[in-house]
Write a structure and sequence with these properties.
Length: 192
């Protein structure tokens, strides 16, 4: 924990613009800390996004449905201590942003369960192994590493592979709280 705090302080003190913290909120684990997290973000000049837990990988310490904490509930919790103002700002990703009155930092909400965002999602991710993942909740991907290694320096070849992959990007993630995940890929192996 101390290393994380030192890293945040270092990023802020070095002048990185728009440092953003992500936090997965789970009922009976950390849902009672959302106001403290917003205060931390405001005190340190960082943005903060709250994320509903996504059913990726195998978890053994809890049932996802039992630990689910909706973004709407987080906003209700925050409204007890903060004046939240919705914004029209968009990053092209799934977050919907709010601001605390009088503050510049964004408070984002990523709600794959309670406010499915698939229709607006334009995000893809590249794994450390060079796979272009087309959706966090689906297994579809394409191997960019193969394109890169087949003809090094041929950017057009890689671009064609990406364009082809985007044509099969799924329309939705099919997340279900009550079902076991069929994707055994954890977020720490997914890429950003």
């Amino acid at each position: 924990m101390e290393e994380v705090l030192v890293g945040i302080e270092a990023a802020v003190s070095e002048g990185f613009q728009r440092v953003k913290l992500n936090c997965v909120i789970r009922k009976h684990r950390n849902h009672d800390e959302v106001c403290d997290l917003v205060r931390f973000a405001l005190d340190h000049g960082t943005d903060l996004s709250f994320i509903e837990e996504m059913p990726l990988g195998v978890v053994g310490d809890h049932e996802r449905a039992e630990a689910y904490y909706a973004s709407d509930q987080i906003r209700r919790d925050l409204s007890e201590q903060f004046d939240l103002i919705p914004t029209t700002e968009r990053t092209g990703g799934p977050a919907r942003y709010w601001r605390v009155a009088g503050c510049a930092q964004q408070i984002g909400f990523i709600a794959p369960h309670s406010h499915n965002f698939c229709g607006d999602c334009n995000r893809v991710r590249v794994t450390a192994e060079g796979r272009l993942l087309l959706c966090l909740g689906q297994g579809l991907s394409t191997d960019l590493r193969r394109s890169l290694r087949a003809k090094p320096g041929d950017d057009a070849r890689v671009k064609r592979a990406i364009v082809r992959a985007m044509s099969i990007k799924p329309r939705g993630h099919d997340f279900a709280l009550s079902e076991q995940s069929v994707l055994f890929r954890h977020m720490n192996a997914t890429g950003g």
